[in-house]
Amino acid sequence: MDEIAVRFSHVSMAFPGVLANDDVTLDIKKGEVFALVGENGAGKSTLMNVLYGINTPTDGKVYISGREVTDFNPKTAISMGVGMVHQHFMLVPSFTVAQNIVLSREPRRGRVFFDNAAAERMTRQLVEEYGLEVDPSVPVEELSVGLQQRVEILKTLFRGAETLILDEPTAVLTPQETDELFAVIRRVVRERNMTVIIITHKLYEVLAISDRVGVMRKGQLVGVRNTADVDEQTLASMMVGRPVLYDQLEKTGTPGEEMIRVEDLTVRDNRGLVAVDGLNLGVRAGEVLGIAAIEGNGQSELIEAITGMRRPESGRITICGRDATGLSPGDIRALGLAHVPEDRLATGVSRDATVTENLLTGKQRQKQFNRFGFHQRTSTIERYARELYEKFDIRGAGTDVTAGDLSGGNMQKVVIAREFSFDCPVLIIAQPTRGVDVGAIEFIHSQIIDRRNHGCAILLCSADLDEVFRLSDRIITLYEGRITGEFSGGFSKDEIGLCMTGSRREKEAVS
Amino acid sequence: MFEDILKSIFSAGTFNQMLRSATPVALAALGGAMTEHAGIMNIGMDGMILMGAFFGVLGSYLFGSAAAGVALVLAMGIVVGLFFALFVVKFKSDEFIIGTALNTFALGLTSFLSRSIFGASGTKGNPALPTVHIPGLDAIPFLGQVLNDNSLFIYLTWLLVLVMWLFVYKTPYGFWLRASGEKPETLRTAGIAPEKMKWLASILCGLLCGLAGAHLSLGQLQGTFAEDMANSRGYIAFACVIFSKANPAVAYGAALMFGFFDAIGLRLQDYISSDLTNTIPYIITIIMMVYVVVRSQRRKRHAGKRLPARQT
Q1: In a domain, B312, yes or no
Q2: DSSP string, A89-137
Q3: How far is A132 from chain B (nearest CA, A)?
Q4: Domains defined along chain A, listed by start
Q5: I want to staple B179 with a disulfide (CB 3.0 to 4.6 A). Which of A203, A509, B34, B187 is the partner?
Q6: Per residue in B106-144, pLDDT tens?
Q7: Residues 127-156 of A with CB under 8 A from B
Q8: Mutant choice from A80, A82, A90 vs B, greatest count of B C-beta within 10 A
Q9: What is the pLDDT of residue A234?
Q10: A89 or B302, which is more confident
């Protein structure tokens, strides 16, 4: 049982400007499920890409089943029994399941012809052997994501993998598909004595599936534990390097003047249907108003209307006491509003622009950053970007790389840094921590509360209910574009949950 | 009169003309199908055809034999394919720019060489490719007239359509070729460099487009070269590739359709202005492209409805 499947010995991996792996030494035993956790950009994927031969380490040695790896490329890794299921599937959509599985090792007929029947037969054999049910003759593009992942696993098994690397396998799966995947992992480990390495940042999954867990932080392996000995809190503090202070946000001050006023607002969605239906709300300075709603109940359209990205059908929006109805996003921002949009890739950052440019966006016309209105003061801009970069703890290869090179969490920090630095009296924040790791979540939350304590009026919308509970002073629930409940003080999850599904609308009419 | 028109349209002569007009387009489309499968948008086929046409005649003129012309074309096809791949695959330049550059370069080079070697009016009457007489085929009425006594490359094209179709869909190399265009990383993680397949596709495209040009100058026009004689056939071939989703057999069908309307245009010249009839193939090309767009739009809508994805 204590045979070593994979050994990393003082492995370092440097990319231009970043040390992605820093002297990592780690043994993974044969027949175990090993979870590798860490924040975005902690170096988990880099380390596994070294094992799979995509990265050649700058220092250190890697041993697979006791043999040293001398030539780092996927072909060698495959021949040494390592298989990897990437986060983005490596499948050709128009090929069938069988054709994808045998790719590069096709069975042949008469030396030159592809033997499709044999490919399907081999796939069926594999399916039966491992109990991973999937039809070999169906084109992959017609399969659900969960089944595509199954094909990926079958592919690595077909190539003779004994060690299986799964890179964030559950990120794209539904809860049911996740359960199925875990059942599959347990089965291959138990029946085939395979070794499974699973990269994730969902801590409850670590506890559910792994035997041992390794935690990475800033490129270093900070600890390896038996899963049985740890809980989510311990892992989270190992990941961020200090205790995670959940539920200890200090809220100070009293609400002031009303800064956002929405009256009888009606907005239509892209299909022309009414998405926001005669809605009224107000947010005061020094207050966080949280919106709790199931996706598609008008919260996106509401925020788009307030920020000027969507023209309202009727009603009135007042920002800082001035009419903002139907103004352009630029004019609304000029009234004193900053906006963290829900989709950072579509509207939050420009992936092709540098981090500096992204941080500057919206301030480029300010006097301090240019001469005579057109000549940029490069060094001032650089210094300013550098300051924000450090203040908001953005981790990447510096301010000169394009924003697209950052991990999701750090990209989000760029958006937050830019918007919060406008120092506006009104903040509209949508999905501030979607796809962001534990440490960054904590940081972003504390920044939001910091703005609140400085007297900012904040409208917050998030699909993560815990987040809404944690940050909000008041919560409204939306259902089909109408407010179905309003809560302040101690929130009851059950009650709010009921309102989100529309079952308390009658009561709202009474109150 | 209307009856006369119909009679002349549906004569054996029209269908024979269809085959002749279709063949250079079909050969180029076969080449274009290779690069298309490898994920390269190749609009440089027109230039490749033109070079093929010129070097075919040049070889035939220099060595006094059409076979030598074809040999020169094959060598040139490989060079042009390598050249194209060097920029598009190795240096990762924009394929649209390189394709356009190739077309412009081919036009300039062939015009310059043609004027220096043959003089202002081009050349004609060089040793041409033979026509093939299949004994016994004449016995079949109509079909015999259409299919028999054609230039060698018309029959070669049939063979090539079959070979390329088998290559793309029935051999492992065809799977690698398609994977290199559809999802190159998949092929790379399987241990095969997708660039290799792209180089191969470029070379095959150079060869096939070269043959298309050789057929044009040495076959169809019996050893003649005139400036810009490709006459946008490369673009029509590209339309055939897109229309057929790079399936060699369907691309040949699309080329036949082009040839058919081209042939009709020639017949109608007796009745309508030739300026007008010459536009017919291009109008058909536009209609084909509209169909392609509509088809992909419908597919997109359909894909939306198809969710949730199929379970087994």
Answers
A1: no
A2: ----TTSBHHHHHHTTS--EETTTEE-HHHHHHHHHHHHHHHT----TT
A3: 11
A4: 4-240 (3.40.50.300), 258-336+424-510 (3.40.50.300)
A5: B187
A6: 999 999 999 999 887 778 888 888 888 888 788 888 888
A7: 133-135, 138, 142-145, 147
A8: A90
A9: 84
A10: A89
The better pLDDT of the pair A492, A316 is held by A316
Q: DSSP 3-state assignment of B304?
A: helix
Mean pLDDT along residues A34-43: 83
Whether pLDDT at B155 is above 60: yes
B290 falls within a domain:
yes
Is B50 a member of any domain?
yes
Residue partners of A268: CB distance under 8 A and separation at least 6: A274, A275, A301, A313
- Strand, helix or coil for residue A23: strand
Residues 152-181 of B with CB under 8 A from A: 166, 170-172, 174-176, 178-179
Pick A103's closest partner by Cβ from B166, B170, B179. B179
pTM score of the predicted model: 0.71
Spatial distance between the Cα atoms of A311 and A309, rounded to a whole number of angstroms: 7
Contact by Cβ (8 Å): A180, A148 = no
B195 within a domain of the structure (yes/no): yes
C-alpha A60/C-alpha A72 separation (Å) is 13
Written as six digits, the tokens of B142 are 């109509």
How far is A54 from chain B, CA to nearest CA, in Å?
9
B228 lies in which domain range?
2-129+141-302
Sheet with A274-284, strands from edge to edge, namely: A274-284, A258-268, A314-319, A322-323
pLDDT, one tens digit per residue, over B34-48 is: 999 999 999 999 999
Residue of chain A whose alpha carbon sits nearest to that of B179: A92
* Inter-chain CB proximity A74 and B176 less than 8 Å: no
CA distance B232 to B254: 16
In A, which residues are within 8 Å of B191 by CB distance?
A: 73-75, 78, 104
Residue type, B187: L
CATH code, domain with B286: 1.10.3470
**Using one digit for the tens of pLDDT, what is the confidence trace for B254-307?**
999 999 988 888 888 878 888 888 888 788 888 888 888 888 777 655 443 333
Per-window interface: B 41-70 vs A, CB < 8 A: none
Residue A46: CB atoms within 10 A of its CB come to: 22
Helix axes B194-214, B233-243, angle to 10 degrees: 130
Using one digit for the tens of pLDDT, what is the confidence trace for B192-204? 899 999 999 999 9
Residue A486 touches partner B, C-beta closer than 8 Å: no
Relative to beta strand A59-64, strand A67-68 is antiparallel
Residue B121 identity: S
The whole-angstrom distance between B304's CA and the closest CA on chain A is 12
| The pLDDT of residue B211 | 96
> In B, which residues are within 8 Å of A92 by CB distance?
178-179, 182-183, 186
Quote the number of domains for chain B.
1
Q: B3 — contact with chain A (CB < 8 Å)?
A: no
Write the residue in B175, B192, B311 that is nearest to A99 by C-beta. Answer: B175
Separation of alpha carbons B248 and B267, rounded Å: 29
Confidence bin at A210 (pLDDT 50/70/90): very high
Of B174, B178, B191, which is closest to A104 when you measure between CB atoms? B191
Q: Mapping DSSP to helix (H, G, I), strand (E, B) and coil, where does residue A18 land? A: strand
CB distance B289 to B239 below 8 Å: yes
Q: What is the mean pLDDT of chain A?
A: 86
Query: How far apart, in whole angstroms, are the C-alpha atoms of residue A415 and residue B242?
Result: 41
Report whether pLDDT(A498) > 80: no
pLDDT in tens, B87-108: 999 998 888 999 999 999 999 9
Cα angle value A494/A499/A505 (rounded, 5°): 145
Backbone angles phi, psi at A266, to 5 degrees: -125, 130
